[in-house]
From TrEMBL, chain A:
<dbReference type="InterPro" id="IPR000515">
    <property type="entry name" value="MetI-like"/>
</dbReference>
<keyword id="KW-0472">Membrane</keyword>
<feature type="transmembrane region" description="Helical">
    <location>
        <begin position="20"/>
        <end position="38"/>
    </location>
</feature>
<feature type="transmembrane region" description="Helical">
    <location>
        <begin position="253"/>
        <end position="276"/>
    </location>
</feature>
<keyword id="KW-1003">Cell membrane</keyword>
<comment type="similarity">
    <text>Belongs to the binding-protein-dependent transport system permease family.</text>
</comment>
<feature type="transmembrane region" description="Helical">
    <location>
        <begin position="114"/>
        <end position="135"/>
    </location>
</feature>
From TrEMBL, chain B:
<feature type="transmembrane region" description="Helical">
    <location>
        <begin position="20"/>
        <end position="45"/>
    </location>
</feature>
<dbReference type="InterPro" id="IPR035906">
    <property type="entry name" value="MetI-like_sf"/>
</dbReference>
<feature type="transmembrane region" description="Helical">
    <location>
        <begin position="83"/>
        <end position="104"/>
    </location>
</feature>
<feature type="transmembrane region" description="Helical">
    <location>
        <begin position="160"/>
        <end position="183"/>
    </location>
</feature>
<keyword id="KW-1133">Transmembrane helix</keyword>
<dbReference type="InterPro" id="IPR051393">
    <property type="entry name" value="ABC_transporter_permease"/>
</dbReference>
<keyword id="KW-0812">Transmembrane</keyword>
Automatic annotation (TrEMBL), chain C:
<keyword id="KW-0732">Signal</keyword>
<protein>
    <submittedName>
        <fullName>Carbohydrate ABC transporter substrate-binding protein</fullName>
    </submittedName>
</protein>
<dbReference type="InterPro" id="IPR050490">
    <property type="entry name" value="Bact_solute-bd_prot1"/>
</dbReference>
<feature type="signal peptide">
    <location>
        <begin position="1"/>
        <end position="20"/>
    </location>
</feature>
Length: 286, 306, 458
């Protein structure tokens, strides 16, 4: 008995050691990308062109001033635009996806199965498929230079819906809703005040995914926004990338990237406790 | 009798909420996705593009665009590229993610600092794909640090031109995809594993099951729904692969078009606003993705369907 | 606790910006509405429009304009609004096209008044009705334009009608390392070096000498491309058929030979390695460059310490010199076009005159920025002065440019130059690298050409 215990504990030690090694390697690779981005933001254009270096350069101030004092690049405005678009996108997407998932999870109605399968099917349609039609549509609706075509479509996010549906199946007992009904609570009110708070961990995880995705989105904004006052950060980064060769400045480019990555890291770290705690998904309990 | 009646009336009165709650989704989907999609499908039967500033067409041409795609372009080649790139990135991703998720949820292993690791592995996903590609381009360039290290270690004599070898370019794209997405996948799989009743694990432990037995006999089967979700969303993402190879290869999908993905090919048609060809390609893409997704879904959750 | 405070602050700021954002959209639609009614009033009384919209892809022109022509705004009582859309993924042209096509229905202050184009795709616009005749419509006189270099006019002239003007002339040249020239050729004098590089056969000879001495003649595959592609005998496309000119194939042959024999360092244009080859550790004899490249790109790349003083002693500052090279060519340049439907003709005329015809202004631009400007008289004046460049070891390169600019012949330009040049260079790289044979590379070229331009055939 004692021997097998010992054996088990040794094998546990070995497994633990292996996991630490692999995790540390992966963590280094992950953090290294960030280090390189920030490091290059401190280096001059020619130095970056000349090759790679682990040591920081001396051009941080110059790069920073180049970005901040550039009269064409409205970096603060761009930051605000990005924050507006990403925040609205995330809020709409998690709120309405939960609502949609809730409808299918809680209520029984004739077309429930159809609605569910339909959403699963449209999840498989690549976004680019409709790109050309999308541009025609928003031009016809006079929504160019507006954030609406970037934000509102987030209401219909099949992948978020599916995630929320799975989460509800594992963590949202129908009894709670029954109890609310007995208290005479209106369904919409129940959803907003009782259900949404219960979904918080899953909402947070999807908020992180969604925020990062929307923050870094170049494709759709590039179809919609051209005015300087409306541009989001990825559009400005593309702008620096395509600068005239005489003005092309990798230092400035990396500074801009570093600048734009900061808010998303902050949001991530605030919400990451939900990733650390984890959320339970699945319908396999009973 | 009265009780069940009561229940029934309750059901009827709540039904409308189900429909009501679905309205926003379907309304928005209808306007912003369905209408554009239908117009895309519609244009796939027309010859319609810009020659300079002149619009050619639209002229109805039936299935000509589709026929052109299959006879003139290398559609199958790009499909193959896309699948290869996806598989190369996805296989290590799912394997590593499964292992990490199992470690993180293993109550016996009790990893220290697991919070830190969980936080950090997702972080590459926060970097814009274009910036990430830029970094990799620098790291793996002909006189970049990777080549220097390999040369100093005596593994190679001449700098290896990663970007001009099929294996090199594909490998890099797969590696980047892996690094950007394994954290995301780990979080999802972890969520799935946490949804499994812990009583099952405890019972297995009492019965003296080894960790690998627990994993293959309990975790994997019960993880299937989430696994299906992960595989399908990843497959869809993989078939839509665009920005990484686009930026890494400067839009040319080199060498010899071996990293040209379907969406990059689609993007080439957008250059001339070729609504006809792009439409036809979109329809094919839709059919392929839909079929593959359903097939994968059936294959994984087949037993449970019955 | 700290975390909580932070998240509350974040939430608050998010709410604030959201509210601001909503308010912002309302406000802007309102002002737009106002603007359009104003504009209607303006056009009904036949006054000059109040807003001049200039479409461009970077801020180069903006800074030129602000430095040398900003005072015109006051004179005409207009505000200039730059609409800058990055070139990435063809976004600039896509946006410009959409705006031009909506020109008729756009409110007059939203109309495109001026747009900028590059030579490689200029004819797409000059052949359309959207670009106005700078003489007939805008009102510049033949006399005003007489000092512009002929090739800069040819590029934007369709059926004898000039539809754009530029403030730059961008003759190409060959910039070489004086120290390497002395060591291998025995002289670093630009005239003597030019003598040894005056045609491609001699150029190849020097290349082999460079190799023997342990240097590369050129850095990479694309360096000599423009010197060949600007001297073709047929345009890229004739009657919708793609024609690969013999001179283009000469480039392919030369570059393949150079690659196989190790005469070049296998880099690509603008790649970090290519830039590094121009620096202190570079082993490359020379680079095909253009006017603007000398003082902006080459100078920066030559320094050992980017933050240090730009003077002899920092890296290889002072070690470069320029000569004409084997064939005359040009590289780069931006043209100003007036858009059909503009309500600011008189402003446009004044601005075009100031920036592209006025000898005084153009001389000043050259002396201030070292950019080579598009005025023969002004440039000849500087050429014959004692002007010299420290970076080029005391050479007066303006004199060289003044000679070269006259020889450029751009009569074989086509609508497709940008897309086809790009596609050919990219597909040929794989042939040079040895990944595919020449035939496959050409097939790939045709394929991407037809994807870009569905109306073309092989």
């Amino acid at each position: 008995m004692k021997k097998t215990n010992q054996k088990a504990s040794i094998s546990l030690q070995i497994r633990r050691a292996i996991s630490y090694i692999i995790l540390i390697i992966l963590a280094i690779i992950s953090l290294f990308s960030f280090y390189m981005l920030f490091n290059n933001a401190t280096r001059a254009h020619v130095d970056i062109q000349r090759g790679f270096s682990l040591l920081p350069g001396r051009s941080f101030a110059r790069n920073f001033n180049n970005v901040i004092n550039n009269t064409t690049i409205l970096i603060v405005r761009g930051m605000i635009n990005s924050i507006i678009v990403s925040t609205c996108t995330v809020m709409l997407s998690v709120y309405f996806s939960s609502m949609t998932a809730y409808a299918i999870h809680v209520y029984d109605f004739k077309y429930k199965k159809f609605a569910f399968n339909f959403i699963l099917l449209i999840m498989t349609i690549p976004t680019q498929v409709g790109a050309l039609g999308f541009v025609k549509l928003i031009t016809a609706m006079d929504l160019k230079e507006s954030f609406i075509p970037l934000i509102v479509p987030a209401i219909a996010a099949p992948a978020v819906f599916f995630f929320m549906k799975q989460y509800m199946e594992s963590s949202l007992p129908l009894e709670i809703i029954e109890a609310a009904r007995i208290d005479g609570s209106n369904e919409f009110y129940t959803f907003n005040t009782i259900i949404i708070p219960l979904l918080k961990p899953a909402l947070a995880v999807q908020a992180i995914f969604g925020f990062a995705g929307s923050w870094n989105n170049y494709f759709t904004p590039s179809l919609v926004l051209t005015k300087a006052t409306k541009k989001t950060l990825p559009l400005w980064i593309a702008y620096i990338r395509s600068a005239d060769f005489t003005k092309f400045d990798m230092g400035q480019l990396y500074m801009m990237v570093a600048f734009s990555i900061f808010p998303v890291i902050v949001v991530y770290l605030i919400l990451s406790k939900f990733i650390v705690q984890g959320v339970a998904l699945g319908s396999v309990k009973g | 009798m009265t009780a069940s009646n009561k229940n029934k009336t309750k059901h009827v009165s709540y039904k409308k909420w189900g429909y009501l709650f679905l309205i926003p989704f379907f309304l928005v989907y209808g306007v912003f996705s369905f209408i554009p999609m239908i117009s895309t499908f519609y244009y796939s039967f027309f010859e319609n593009y810009m020659s300079g500033l002149k619009e050619i067409g639209p002229t109805f041409v039936g299935f000509d665009n589709y026929i052109k795609l299959f006879t003139e372009g290398d559609l199958l080649k790009y499909f193959e590229n896309t699948i290869i790139l996806w598989v190369l990135g996805f296989v290590p991703q799912i394997v590593i993610s499964l292992i990490l998720a199992a470690w993180f949820t293993d109550t016996r292993l009790k990893l220290k600092c697991s919070g830190f690791f969980k936080t950090v592995i997702y972080m590459p996903n926060l970097i814009m794909a274009s910036s990430f590609a830029m970094l990799f381009f620098a790291l793996f360039s002909n006189n970049g640090p990777i080549n220097l290290i390999l040369m100093n270690a005596g593994i190679i004599k001449e700098p290896f031109h990663f970007m001009s070898s099929t294996a090199g370019a594909r490998g890099l794209i797969a590696l980047m995809n892996f690094l950007m997405w394994y954290g995301n996948t780990t979080i999802l799989l972890m969520a799935g594993m946490m949804g499994i009743d812990t009583a099952l694990f405890e019972a297995a432990e009492v019965d003296g099951a080894t960790p690998s037995q627990v994993f293959s006999k309990i975790t994997m089967p019960l993880l299937k729904p989430i696994l299906a979700y992960v595989i399908i969303t990843s497959l869809i993402g993989g078939l839509q692969m665009f920005d990484l190879p686009q930026i890494l290869t400067n839009g040319k999908g080199g060498p010899d078009r071996t990293t040209m993905t379907l969406i990059m090919y689609l993007n080439n048609h957008l250059y001339s606003k070729n609504y006809g060809m792009a439409g036809a390609l979109s329809v094919i893409l839709f059919l392929v993705t839909g079929t593959l997704s359903i097939w994968v879904f059936k294959a994984i959750t087949g037993q449970r369907e019955k | 606790m700290k975390k909580k405070v932070l998240s509350i602050m974040l939430a608050a700021s998010v709410m604030a910006t959201m509210l601001a954002g909503c308010g912002g959209t309302d406000a802007s639609t309102q002002t737009e509405g106002k603007a359009s009614t104003q504009a209607e009033n303006a056009s009904s009384s036949l006054e000059e429009g109040k807003v001049v919209n200039i479409y461009c892809w970077n801020d180069e022109f903006k800074s030129r304009y602000e430095a040398y022509a900003k005072d015109l705004e006051e004179k005409h009582g207009v505000t200039v609004n730059f609409v800058i859309v990055a070139n990435e993924n063809n976004a600039y042209q896509n946006n410009l096209d959409a705006a031009l096509q909506a020109q008729e229905s756009a409110a007059s202050d939203d109309k495109v008044d001026i747009f900028l184009v590059e030579a490689d795709y200029a004819s797409k616009y000059t052949k359309s009705e959207y670009a106005l005749d700078v003489v007939g419509d805008v009102g510049l006189t033949a006399d005003d334009l007489s000092q512009q270099y002929q090739y800069t006019k040819d590029i934007v002239t369709v059926d004898g009608v000039q539809k754009g003007t530029t403030w730059q002339a961008t003759p190409g040249l060959f910039a070489y390392r004086r120290s390497i020239a002395k060591e291998v050729l025995g002289t670093d004098d630009p005239a003597m070096v030019q003598e040894k590089l005056s045609d491609w056969a001699k150029f190849d000879e020097v290349a082999s000498k460079m190799k023997d001495a342990g240097y590369f003649m050129l850095s990479g595959y694309d360096d000599s491309f423009r010197a060949f592609s600007n001297n073709v005998s047929t345009p890229w496309v004739e009657a919708n058929k793609i024609v690969v000119d013999d001179n283009i194939m000469n480039w392919v042959k030369q570059t393949k030979t150079y690659t196989d024999k190790g005469y070049n360092n296998k880099t690509t244009l603008w790649a970090p390695e290519w830039s590094a080859d121009q620096g202190p550790d570079g082993k490359v004899f020379g680079f095909f460059y253009s006017t603007w490249g000398i003082n902006f790109t080459l100078l920066g790349n030559s320094l050992a310490d980017a933050e240090g003083e730009k003077a002899v002693g920092n890296g290889i500052f002072g070690d470069y010199a320029v000569c004409e090279g084997p064939q005359a060519y040009y590289w780069g340049g931006t043209w100003i076009c007036a858009a059909k439907g503009t309500d600011n003709i008189s402003f446009i005329k004044d601005m075009m005159y100031r920036l592209t015809c006025d000898a005084e202004t153009m001389k000043k631009i050259t002396l201030d920025t070292q950019d080579y400007t598009n005025n023969e008289a002004a440039m000849n004046e500087i050429a014959s002065s004692d002007y010299s460049s420290d970076f080029l070891g005391g050479q007066n390169h303006i004199a060289l440019f003044a000679e070269a600019a006259k020889k450029i012949d751009m009569s074989n330009i086509s609508d497709y130059d940008q897309g086809l040049n790009e596609a050919l260079q990219q597909t040929m790289h794989e042939y040079f690298e040895g990944n595919v044979d020449e035939q496959t590379a050409l097939e790939n070229f045709y394929q991407s050409a037809i994807e870009k331009y569905p109306e073309l055939t092989k």
